[in-house]
Amino acid sequence: MTSIRIKKRVSAAFALEADFSLGPGITALIGPAGAGKTLLLEIVAGLATPDEGRILLNDAILFDGQARVDLAPVRRGCGYVSQTDSLFPHRNLRQNLEFAARRFPRLERHRRAAEAIERFALAEAAGMRPADTGPAERLRCSIARALIGSPELLLADDAGIDGALFGLIRTHFHGPILIAARDPDVACEVAAEMALVDGGRIVQRGVPRQVLDQPATVEAARLAGYENLWQGTIARLDRAANLSRVEFDGFALTVPYLPGHLRGDRVWVAIRAAAVHPRRADAPPAPNVVPAELVRAAERAQSVRLEFAGPIVAELSLGQFAALGGQKNLSVEFPAESLRVIP
Amino acid sequence: MTADWSPLWLSLRVALMVSALVLLVAPWPAWWLSRRNWPAVTLLAHFLSMVPAVVVASLAAPVFGWPVAVAAGLVRAIPYTLATCRAAFQSLDPGLVKAARMAGASDWHVFRTVALPLDGGAALAAAAEVFAETMLEMAVALWVIGRLSVASAGAIVLTGLAGSALWLWLRREAVR
After folding, report:
1. Pick from A18, A21, A58, A13: which is nearest to A39 by CA?
2. How far apart are CA A283 and CA A326, in angstroms?
């Protein structure tokens, strides 16, 4: 069993608190900068000490606040890939790898370095210093360095590892991986489990798609990328028709029936910007369509982001935006299947 | 009449000794202090570095013998070198230290294999500055007791200037 239960007070305003188990696959910590992801990884690696708690890796105790067990980083069996590659700039890549394997006898050290160079396609760059190599080689080298000691757990801190590289890692490392990232895309691609982290605590955990599609709290919805979040009042509950009506400041929406709620209850409703459909004001009426005044249109590389009074945010393709004909007074449609109600 | 070069040799001996000793003594405590916040040590080092040059110069007067002159020179040189090296070590990428710790390197090993190769230039620059300053302080001390010949004075000033130039170059290299 691999589990992490720790508490650490960093300042009067920020404390990190986590309690979760790691499965055999990839677990992704997703959260904004300053959420505590790096600190959590450093605590597991032994680079920072928690105030209390217990960390187990395959049933071996790495840290126990009560029993005063606190293993040194090198004895924890963790490989750590930091946010920046952190390769020693005065050593070439081969020497960097050998340094990481310094606890092994000389021949074994050389064997492990040669093996890592071959596995991570570093043969051409092995004799070069990090500054003379490309970012992709430096990243592969820092991963190879983290794995050179045959760790039981790999920790990767927002290092920019993509799906293909995780595939390469998986061919040589089969233990659990704990990654920290700001962007949930990689987590969706590779992780078996996702934990949303904000303000030093885990706000929601689960299968990535489930976490992103069914945020349990307002914080989780924000972290999962829901840009439209409004608090409203339940005005109608109709079990027979399977619908509820939620009123907001200036508009109302129909959502599926909300069991366990009463009329007058306050709830949050969330919808992704890409799921909001702006329409011309003269388009035929439809459910959940409300008039909206366009305040700002920001063009992006592949899309246009529209901000309406409300505030309502929509994101649509360049072609869809052109079809709106440059009108300011539009209406927006909120498809019921894309609306998420958060108690 | 031949020029009296003994003040120059004496100044050189003292300045070289102070520079070498300061290089030997200061970097490790500076590394150790760079990751700790001890206000008392910082205050003491700052106070010692403010001791007026003339006081040290008087103490360094050759009437007390060159070992005392070296000790007096160290009073100012060590805090200065400590502060310079500490600042340099504090700017070292913490990720490198963490990478070394993950590899099982001890504090001393991190200092020897990571901090010194990357930021040792700051210690060399500080030693060059200490050399130049000690040369000039020795000149003042010898002048006060009337043992400074014109030829030696010129040579001491030139050597001090060379030390300063070396400091400037090393500092530029250390920053690069």
Report:
1. A18
2. 15
pLDDT bracket for residue B150 (50, 70, 90): confident
Q: Using the beta-carbon criterion (under 8 Å), do B98 and A82 form an inter-chain contact? A: yes
Residue in chain B lying closest to A99 (CA): B103
Spatial distance between the Cα atoms of A209 and A17, rounded to a whole number of angstroms:
24
Q: Rounded to the nearest 5°, which phi and psi values hold at A187? A: -60, -40
What sign does the dihedral A68-A73-A74-A76 (CA atoms) show? positive
Contacts of B93 in chain A (CB under 8 A): 84, 86
Handedness of CA B119, B125, B126, B127 (dihedral sign): positive
Which one of B103, B114, B117 has the shortest CB-CB distance to A74? B103
CB A3 within 8 A of CB A63: no
pLDDT band at B59 (very low <50, low <70, confident <90, very high): low
List, for residues B13-43, the tens digit of each pLDDT value: 888 999 999 999 999 999 988 888 777 877 7
Residues in a beta bridge with A298: A305
ipTM value: 0.81
CA–chain centroid gap for A204, Å, is: 11
Whether A76 contacts A82, CB under 8 Å = no
pLDDT (mean) for B106-127? 91
Write the DSSP symbol of residue A175: S
Find the CB nearest B98 among A47, A72, A102.
Answer: A47
Q: SS3 letters for A46-94?
A: CCCCCCEEEEEECCEEEEECCCCEECCHHHCCEEEECCCCCCCCCCCHH
Instruction: Determine the Cα–Cα distance for residues A192 and A2; give it in Å rounded to an integer.
Output: 15
Residue A87 CB coordination number (10 Å): 28
Q: What is the pLDDT of residue A172?
A: 93
Which residue from A94, A71, A85 is spatially nearest to A138, judged by alpha carbons? A85
